[in-house]
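Hi, here's the filled form for the chain we discussed.

Project: internal
Contact: R.S.
Residues: 264
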Amino acid sequence: MVGGCYAAGGLDELESFARDLSKRRVIGLLDFNFGGSGLITGDRLAKLLARGFGDTRIEDLPRRFVCVSTELRTGHEIWLSKGELVQSMRASYALPGLFKPVRVLDRWLIDGALVNPVPVSVCRAFGARLVIAINLNTDMFGKGTVVRAHDPVETCPGDTDADWPDEAHTGVDGARGLLRRQLVGTRAGPPGISSVMVDAFNIVQDRIARSRLAGDPPDIMVTPKLADIGMFEFHRAREAIDAGARAGDRILAEIEGTLTALAR
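And the returned structure, exactly as it came back:
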């Protein structure tokens, strides 16, 4: 989504929107849907994007832009370089289980990070002489660790559903409490549905990224420190943006040096 907004000239507006997000506004954007193929339909966010970009098509953008997605049926890596910008962006961030898949022509598409989290190969295929990658998972130390064995672990007090705090189980408040526990979990109890999905997705994404970057590394890697910011903590956008700016500053001299060398 950030890439699409940049290519369409709307990055400043996106930054202003993100910096103004609060927990309440984030929750307002999450249109839960328990009867479909994702917990969140994503329609509210899509309407905001459509308000800004309308029927803008990728091939009409002033900058070259490609979205990466995954075909749900076959697992094929799909490069979206033509078509509606908003629809393509939605397909590229449709996290399986959370956002419903997006239909593009005759394909049902989900998040491209399942097959190509840091798509260096796409940039090279489209003729890039210099590939600058931004890897959002490099600060997650220990994700690739293998533990040979565990000592027996006793059940902790917060390991069962019965240990969750007792709340009203009737009426609107009870329904909201149950929904919150199922989606987010509690500090003392087991993780919620969304936490399990996101953590599992992060593990898969990290392993795939390590493998693909080893075989096809970028020319320059930007590595913001984001380990303490959760995937759905959009209300902390200010911290994330500032971390990205610091990462860019650290690598700026290398980028300038490489561009000078290419220009010779």
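Let me know if anything looks off before we file it.
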